[in-house]
Structure formats: C-alpha cells, structure tokens
Amino acid sequence: MTTFASGTDTLTRDALTVLQPGFPGTTAPDWLLRRLGEGLASVGLFGRNIASPGQLASLTAQLRAERDDVLVAIDEEGGDVTRLEVRTGSSFPGNHALGAVDDVELTRLVAHELGRRLAACGVNLNWAPSADVNSNPANPVIGVRSFGADTGLVARHTAAYVTGLQAAGVAACTKHFPGHGDTAVDSHHALPRIDAELPVLHRRELAPFRAAITAGTRAVMSAHILVPALDPDRPATLSPRILTDLLRHELGYDGLIVTDGMEMRAIAGTYGIEQGSVLAIAAGADAICVGGGLSDDATVRRLRDALVAAVRSGELPEERLAEAAERVRGLARWTAQAQRAAAAASEAPTEPGTEPAAGTVGQAGRADVGLVAARLALRVTGADGFVPLTEPPYVAALTPVANIAVGDETPWGLAAELSRKLPGTGTGSFTGEDAGRAALAAAGERRVVAVVRDEHRHPWMASALDTLLADRPDTIVVEMGIPQAEPRGALHIATHGAARVCGLAAAEVIAGE
Question: Which end of the chain has the lower number of beta carbons within 10 A, N or C?
C-alpha cells in the first residue's frame, strides 16, 4: 500500500495524480520518485528510457518500490511506432499490415503477445491502438499507424486489438478521439482541422471508437484536432462537447480519458500547456500526457500548480479534478487485477481438443506471431517471372523526413535483413530531387532494390523512381508505407509498414526464401 508524503494536501495530490509525465534517462530521477511519494500516479515511457527488456523491468521495479500501484504507460503501437524496440525496429508489424491481412484473430494474437512482453517488463498501460480511419491518403502523421481506410475493417481490428492487449493485463488506450485520419496536418506541429459533416463523422470516424468501447477499452486518448461539426471553437482535447457530451454521454464511455501530448504545438502553441491542461480536465479529460518534449520536475510543478490555482479560483471545479484523479486510481486497480488474471490464464493447461489446427495462424509459436503476420501482409506484384537474387544488391532507401510520432532513431528498411541473407549488400539513404541519380551512381553495376515510404506523398520520391527504372528496369521496388501508387519495377513488394519484421519478410521474398 502506497503511503504519501506528509504535508501533501488532497487537492495537491489530486493535481499530481492526473499528470502522466515523462523523464530522461534509463533510471528514475530523484525528483520523479519524490513526486510519486507525493501523489503522482502515472509516468510515461519513451524510447529514451529503454535500452533492453531487462533494463526496463528494473526501471519499472524502481518506480513501484516508491509507489506500488503506479501506472506505467508507453507508446508501443508495434510497427513503425515502437519504444520497446526503438534501437532495432519492431518484431511486430503495425496496424496497416494487420488490416491488409484482415484476420481479426491474428490481430488479437499480435496484440496479446505485444501485451505479454510489455507486462513482463512492468508496463501496464499502452497508448494504443490507433483507431483512426486513414481516409485522407495525404495524412502525414497517421498513415500505416491506421488499420486502413475502410471503417468496418478499422472497427473490427480495433476491437480485436483491445481484446488481445487487455487479456495480457495491459490497459489499452484507444486513440485519437474523435478520429485523426482525415487530416493533412500533423498536430505535433500545428492544429489540424476536419471539416466533415456530422453524419460522416458518426458513420466513419466514430464507429471504431464505438467498437473499442464495446470491447471494453480501459482508456481513450483525445486528439488535438478541430472538428467544427462537433465544436467550432475548441480542439477535441479541450472540448466539453466532445469529451463529455459525445464521448461520455452519447457513446456511454466511463473509462479513463487521456490527452495526447500537451507539449504538441496544436495545444502548446495556441493555449500553452498550463492553460491547456486546466481546460482539458475541465472538459472531461482525466489524465494529462506530457513528456515527449518536456520531461522535468519544473514542468510537473507548473502543471500541478496551474491545476491547484484553477480550482482555488473557481475556474476548475474541485469535484471534476477529484473525479479525474479517482479514474486514474481506478485504472491502476484494474491493471493489478488484470495482470493477476493474465498470469493465471497463462499457467492454465490447454483443454484437450482446443489446440489450433495445423496450418492456422494460431499454430504459430507465440514469439513468431509478428513474423507470421508480416509475411501474410505482403502484396507482391511481378513474382511470376522473378528470379530470386543470389548476388548482393544495392539497397537505395529513398528516405522521407520521419514524422515525430515515429521518430528518427528507429531504423527502417530492409538493408540489414537482406545483408544477413546476401552478405555484401550495399546500402545508402537518398533524399531530394537528385536522389535517383545519386542512387544510380552509388549502386554501380549492382542490382538495385529501391525502398520507398509513401511514394504517393512525395513527388521527389516518385521522380527518383522514374530515374532508377528508366536506367535500370530490373530494379526491385519495396513500398514500406501506404501502397497508394501504381506498383512498378521488375518486382514490387508492398509491406504495409516499415517495421524490422516487415523488412525481414520482404528480404525473404527477394532472396528466394
């Protein structure tokens, strides 16, 4: 049982309880441990906090030595957005690959195995899955993080993901409510706007969230987007109409509402993080995520003090803050019970006759389910006349700027995996209008494997492919983003994501495995 530091009043404790801050380093700093003793109930983990599963387990144990019921949250979507495997790339394909396979049992198995690994490291809240319908092909921040552009597909896979993850004892946080798929602006940089009419929003954006709520998602993350049909004045994170009237009352959701990162420019650049946090709690949010870019004690103090001052001035009702804090504590209680249930289920013997049938996805080993999914997600064009490579090629990665959610520290592509199969494989990264000519010069006489990521969004990338294919019509093209452009090349492989395991699956095809 957690004992709070003396001298911390209930109002201050509640203000700390609703915060989900990040922190630097692979061990907990003294200030964070001190705040846990004063009432802080959650922390958020990012790639900077993780070196290995063993180190992560030690870190979460250090946090729980100070507060045994702490919520340890992470942004682990699998696929392109990974924190658990930030240095190597993920062992699991992301949502778009799972949507391409469209096997809800496979999605459930992948989410369960990902949840099992998180729980083994002491993580009990995952800011996933993305339930956004990627209806705008130009979307710069969702893309392969979405299960797809079809509402029904996104809804059924969102529900399967929530079910699988939570069966492992890790709370799901379905995001980004009320739907970030029809945007052309990244909310890390500015405030996006969705101008869809109300009937469209209900039919398209909201359907996956209804499915997640029915599946029992324990948390929902709000989006920093303006949706005039729902609220013409405030972005969703700060909108009582969206968080309370729509999500709570109309959709009947009673779990934890978490904000997206308050340091993102859509909020920080318009309202500021202090006022934004007060408005978010007043609107119906229960937890304030902050720490992707702000991760120090000064930020925690500023937000705590802003919430306390808002209560004392009458701007924020004290009972609203207390309600939010109790929802945080309620989720902590749920995770403790869920992890005990998951441990008991893993130890239970398999009932005779319930083993997966031969040749089914369920027969795959637990640790291999990510690779099985990545292989099934491949869409290969031109395979009939293709002769697998036996000599090392040159992998030309036509590399766009990574969006902030993905980060630029996680490797992508297939050069590393192809090098293991064809030692001596060369590689280079190319960007800009001269990328095609530069790649040809670097490749020399070697066969070219051109790796692209959302060719349809980057004219320079399409032009570079034109140059490569005009000079080398035998070029192999691997699209690791949304396969929106027409397939071309001697062989075209769409992986539906850029995770390490997607690169491995594509390398197996190229090398004839």
Answer: N
For 439-507, list the strands marked E by DSSP.
448-452, 476-479, 491-494
Q: Is the pLDDT of residue 360 over 50?
A: no
CB-count burial class (<10 Å; 0-12, 13-18, 19+) for 496: buried
Spatial separation of the C-alpha atoms in residues 50 and 84, rounded to whole Å: 7
- Which tokens belong to 112? 């369960």
pLDDT of residue 365: 53
188 has catalytic annotation: yes
Among 75, 260, 286, 454, the one annotated catalytic: 260
* Segment 26-35 long-range contacts (CB within 8 Å, at least 24 positions apart): 26/50, 26/51, 26/55, 26/59, 27/58, 27/59, 27/62, 28/59, 28/62, 28/63, 28/66, 29/297, 31/296, 31/297, 31/300, 32/63, 32/297, 33/62, 33/63, 33/66, 34/5, 35/297, 35/300
Residue 140 one-letter amino acid: P
Tell me the pLDDT band of 363, cut-offs 50, 70 and 90.
very low
How confident is the model over 108-122, as pLDDT tens digits? 999 999 999 999 999
Burial 88-116 (b: 16+ CB within 10 A, else e): ebbbbbbbbbbbbbbbbebbbbbbbbbbb
Which of 112, 188, 224, 492 is an active site residue? 188
Q: What is the mean pLDDT of the chain?
A: 92
Instruction: Tell me what pLDDT residue 484 has.
Output: 87
Peptide bond into 178 cis (omega under 30): yes
260 catalytic, yes or no?
A: yes
- Ranges of beta strands (E only) in 230-281 are 256-258
Instruction: Report strand pairing: 379-381 vs 491-494.
Output: antiparallel
What is the per-residue pLDDT across 162-173, written as a single tens digit (0 to 9) for each?
Answer: 999 999 999 999
- Contact predicate 31/276, CB 8 Å: no
Query: How much is the pLDDT for 2?
Result: 59
Question: How does strand 256-258 pair with strand 288-290?
Answer: unpaired
What are the Cα distances from residue 316, in Å, to 3, 11, 334? 27, 12, 27
